[in-house]
């Protein structure tokens, strides 16, 4: 079996397939792991799946201990009952530097051949499946799993070329050494403004991950520290301090993008996982987690049959409802969070502040729950 892509979804898939006694090799376009300068949250659902795959994440990153929604100036809107949620879900949420997670997954995948600097140009099926590299090299297998991201070449083979879907706002991201009395150990703090948001998250080791969003035409974003500082001038002191302590070259600028949900995410002995299958906006923090879930379900499906096409269709059916819900809910939550108009924004903040704990907890636990 060939897995195209050695990111979070690809490495998780490789481990899951090996656990199912499937011979697997990974093909990755980059010559080495990219130093991204970003971090992410691995929620309880994905932590439990990784444990099931034999990957212990609890000693890495920083366990989420406190999650708060605040106004732009730092006034508390809502605190999520994280301790109760963690107990209900059976595992913590881990905030972790992306490269550290990739290192953990690469260690778990030790012994699996990973062919780097091998960019796929096309896919063909003639009994078996062949990938053709941009340099003309070929590799053939009984089945192919596309884990090659939002601009997946394997996806284009299945569904045709299509443009990504813009969400209408830009994201600035950075990881920095950071200590501030406004950010405690295990904190994840989300600040909501008018068409803007800011997240400040402790990822352990004296470091913080921050992200900021602003509704604007993507082509106008310059990605400079000056631009980000101007966008969040007057916000909470810890927000301004985080931006001030960030080197200009540490800031990454990306457009917020997803894709409409695919009705068919596989064909014959070819299927997709992660962002190649169902790229989503980040509002539920489930992009990486859903890719890890995909890997687990795919491995389980391949353990039940020796025919890749049969296993792939079983996997796709099993993942259809949840991944569709995650894509659609992530987009709707994102639009709610980015509201600019003062009236609906006031209503939004009022509802979040006054809804019963059980209602708020149920919404977030729905994204963070996965049955093994």
From TrEMBL:
* Matching Gene3D superfamilies: FAD/NAD(P)-binding domain
Alphabetically, the GO molecular function entries are:
FAD binding; monooxygenase activity
Q: Which cofactor does it need?
A: FAD
Protein's recorded name = FAD-dependent monooxygenase
The record's keywords, sorted A to Z, are: FAD, Flavoprotein, Monooxygenase, Oxidoreductase
Q: Which residues form the FAD-binding domain?
A: 2-328
**Annotated InterPro entries:** FAD-bd, FAD/NAD-bd_sf
């Amino acid at each position: 079996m060939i897995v195209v892509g050695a990111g979070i979804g690809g490495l998780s898939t490789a481990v899951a397939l090996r656990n199912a006694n499937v011979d697997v090799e990974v093909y990755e376009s980059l010559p080495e792991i990219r130093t991204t300068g970003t971090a992410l949250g691995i929620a309880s659902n994905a932590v439990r799946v990784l444990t099931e795959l034999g990957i212990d994440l609890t000693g890495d990153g920083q366990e989420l201990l406190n999650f708060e929604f605040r106004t732009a100036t730092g006034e508390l809107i809502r605190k999520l009952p994280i301790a109760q949620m963690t107990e209900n879900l059976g595992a913590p949420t881990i905030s972790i530097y992306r490269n550290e997670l990739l290192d953990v997954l690469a260690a778990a995948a030790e012994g699996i051949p990973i062919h780097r600097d091998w960019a796929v140009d096309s896919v063909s099926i003639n009994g078996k499946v062949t990938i053709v590299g941009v340099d003309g090299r070929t590799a053939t297998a009984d089945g192919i799993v596309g884990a090659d991201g939002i601009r997946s070449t394997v996806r284009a083979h299945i569904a045709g070329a299509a443009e990504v879907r813009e969400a209408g706002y830009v994201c600035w991201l950075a990881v920095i050494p950071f200590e501030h009395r406004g950010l405690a150990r295990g904190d994840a703090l989300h600040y909501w403004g008018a068409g803007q948001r800011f997240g400040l998250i402790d990822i352990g080791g004296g470091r913080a991950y921050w992200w900021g969003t602003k509704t604007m035409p993507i082509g106008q974003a310059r990605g400079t520290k000056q631009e980000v500082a101007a966008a969040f001038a007057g916000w909470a002191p810890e927000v301004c301090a985080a931006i001030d302590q960030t080197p200009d070259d540490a800031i990454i600028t990306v457009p917020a993008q997803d894709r409409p949900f695919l009705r068919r995410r596989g064909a014959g002995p070819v299927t997709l996982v992660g962002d190649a299958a169902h790229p989503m906006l980040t509002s539920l923090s489930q992009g990486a987690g859903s890719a890890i879930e995909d890997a687990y379900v795919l491995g389980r499906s391949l353990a039940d049959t020796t025919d890749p096409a049969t296993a792939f269709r079983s996997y796709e059916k099993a993942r259809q409802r949840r991944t569709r819900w995650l894509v659609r809910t992530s987009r709707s939550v994102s639009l709610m969070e980015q509201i600019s108009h003062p009236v609906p924004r006031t209503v939004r903040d009022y509802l979040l502040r006054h809804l019963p704990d059980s209602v708020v907890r149920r919404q977030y636990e729905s994204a963070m729950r996965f049955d093994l």
